[in-house]
Amino acid sequence: MDAIRRQAREPVVPAGADEEPGEFDELFSERGHWNERPAAWGNPDGALEQSQFFRALELCLARLPGRTAQAFMMREHLGLETGEICKELEVTPTHCWVMLYRARMALRECLQQTWFGK
What we know:
- The protein is an all-alpha fold.
- It has helices at 2-9, 44-48, 51-63, 66-76, 82-89, 93-116.
- It is globular.
């Protein structure tokens, strides 16, 4: 019975979602930071100071699934550790890492189109 309850609380992550290297894996270090900033982005400090950037970021965050956006904001805005995020969202560490990866990729693509690609 406990296994059924746990399975209902923990969303199913597709087999191999965290094992197979994706097309974007080489862009990030082991710690999840960019290996090399995309050339078209220029200086992100200047972009962050502009209110239009924050509006574009908010629009991109709104396009993410709710829990994925929440995990991203908990990690990047609030600076929470994986364990804290997992406890709050009731997910496994593996699922948390998958959600953060997907959030980063979706935000990168969205910002590339709506902000940096202008």
